[in-house]
Every structure is written in structure tokens, then in C-alpha cells.
């Protein structure tokens, strides 16, 4: 009996010391907190950037976040909804030396009365959720581009889908009679507040509320449903490209042929590359910008200094004091395309593309981080080596 009691005591002690005990940590006790509500497609960026910020000597802060649908996030910021459920936070090495961005972030205990949001993140045009102007005191800041993909199991023989096929598959289900996708129970999609569904809905002309399939709350649920399907040939799903990029060993992306196109394209130049070349030049059309919503003053400047610094880092703007890491490198590494690497743009969800020249281009640096820079890219150590151009991130850019 004594041995049993000792075993039970040790078990209780282990439970207290387990990761669940992290809930005892008060969110407000974390250094320089920033409270965020974000779509789950942006969680990889929050983890990667948050880890650097916790270790930073010049721009230290703790990202505390909760994931929800983009439309829900926009509404929360517009309505002043407080963060009231225990969120996740990015730990420091001292708090958890074993944590890295591939793992779930721990939780902290929020004030039961709730905490006002500092920042909300949408992964599509805000007008797709709410066409009205933002309330006074709320600013919208357009960030990196987020591509989306149709996915199938690795065992599927399907390699491409046209917009017309997707229209009949997701708009009519089994009655659409598009082989092999005739079983609606094997369509894994998102709910109507999610950017993934709304962006793809605009691309194929089927309103989000009309889509056929199993509507799932999280990207991880879609990924798991597609990857483990017992009928791979009949299975199809939708996913943010940055989630797909981290799980290419589990599912395959389909090349997409938009309306009026003659060929199907991957977001990248090939099925195995990560260069997002077809997104950047307009061949691949299923994408939206991320949008950051923050409190601003009458001049449109973000009022919270930490939030202003964070947003400027993500938007590749100058930050003072300068961070002791390269935020643009992290944005690129998480599968997003910074505005400075784009050569096309659009003004609303699913809208026509037009040529675009970013004010401070970074295309060569982007290419260097995801593969091989093009032959026209020249390395440099200063503007004087660029023949009138600018040296940015070690490359001569056009301006």
C-alpha cells in the first residue's frame, strides 16, 4: 500500500509539473504583451516571429494570440470584443527551452473580465466580410499575400482542377457529376467565416454559404481529413498554401486553371518548388492579402508602439530601434509572399489582376530565400554597386 501511495503522489506531482500547469501563468505577467486574434493560417508566422521577439534585445515582446475565422476577427476589432478565453503565447527559452515553432504554443490564463485586442489579422480583403468602412480609430494595413490551394491525398492520381470543375464540384456536389469527386462526404472545406473558403469561393464563383462538403473549423482538421481518407481518389480539400507547404509529405496540391486561362498552374513554378513564382506574376490566381487591423490615431498611426513595431516588421518597413533579426526572412520562410516581391495586384476578392511595381522591391531577396535567384539578380554591398538602383537585403533591386 505504501508503494501505491508513493506512486500516486509522484503521479500528482508530475501532473502539476506537466505542460498543463502552464495555465497557472497569468498572461498579463508576460513581458511586453501584444494581444492578437488571427486566422489559423497565420499561426506559423506568429510562432516564428514571436520566438525571435521573445529573444530580441532591441524589440522584445510576447505575442499572445487566439485563432478564429478572418470575418470573426474583423468583427471583434470593429465591435471592441475582448479576448476572454485562455489564449496561447510564445514562450521564451527560459520558460520552455524545448519549445520550437513546430510545436503547439502553451496557454496562459486571461483576465476573466477579458482583455482588449491590440491587433486582429484577416487573411483576405476585409470587404469580403464587411463592406462598410472601418469604425473611427481602426486602421487597416495590407500585408503579405496568402495563396490557397485545392489538395488531394498523396495516393490520388489527380494533378489539376479547372475553375469550371471546381464550380460544379463544390456548387453542386454529387449532382455536378465531375469525376472522381462525386462523394460530398469527402469534400473537406472550411466554415463561412474563414478566409480559405471565401477566397476560393471568389475564385470559382460559388458563394461560401452554398459550398458542398464537410465544413471544418481548423486547417489541421482539413489536412487530417484529406490525408487519412479511405477513398483517396474521391477526396478533395482546401488549404492555405503555407499550411500545405509544411505538410507536403501528407497531401498534394492541385494545379489550378482559372476561368479564361488555357493552362493550369501551381502557386510555385513546379509542383516541388517553393518560389511562389506563379502567384507573384499572376499565373496562379487564388490568393488574398493579409490585412492587419489595429487602433490608430487621427493621423492613421498605430497608437500602441509595440503593435506599430510588429506591423511594420511584417510589412517590411523601417523599424526603430531596428530588430536584431530580419523579419522579412521570417515572413518568406512561412510561405507568405511579401508585397515587395509581388508584380501583380488586385483590389478586391477574386478581382482582375493588374501589373504592380512595389515601392521598395525585394524580388531578388525573396528568390534567394526560396530557391535560386534569377539571372538578372545581382548581389551587392551598397547602393553604389547598383548603377542607380538600391541595394536591399544584399541584392540590387529596381528602385
From TrEMBL:
The keyword Signal applies. Residues 1-24 form the signal peptide. Keywords: Signal. This is PBP domain-containing protein. It comes from Polyangium mundeleinium.
